[in-house]
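pasting 8-oxo-dGTP diphosphatase for the record, 143 residues
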Amino acid sequence: MNQQASSPPHKIIGVAVIENNSGQILIDRRRPEGVMGGLWEFPGGKMEPGETVTECIEREIKEELGINIEVGELLIIIEHTYTHLKVTLIVHMSKHVSGVPQPIECDEVRWVHLDELSQFEFPEANTQIISALKQYKALTNIF
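structre below
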């Protein structure tokens, strides 16, 4: 991959695919005025210096949605370059532990079933998360 002199900034982002006891997945909609505004996403945020991925995900979910989660196994790591930003998404399966999700730093939150995800518009990199999640669910539902 060629590095250009004016390559976009790079962010490492911890992402949670949060499930509740009913098997639903939590998604949130970005605020309209921001980058990729109005699109849906799996919640998470930028890692701070000295922070582990697990710490990042737990902190971001508490700050953005006001809930507590248990971060589980790694689902996928995605490297994606948008025109304005390069991201490394480190995505972990997570379980909802306590609290009612609130749209603190987003426009809206929803619990949805896996087969409903196609009804929502996600940023391009999130399509890989959805594919990995479908494969993960297909494998874990076998047992």
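Residues 25 and 135 are 15 Å apart (CA to CA).
Helices lie at 53-65, 126-140.
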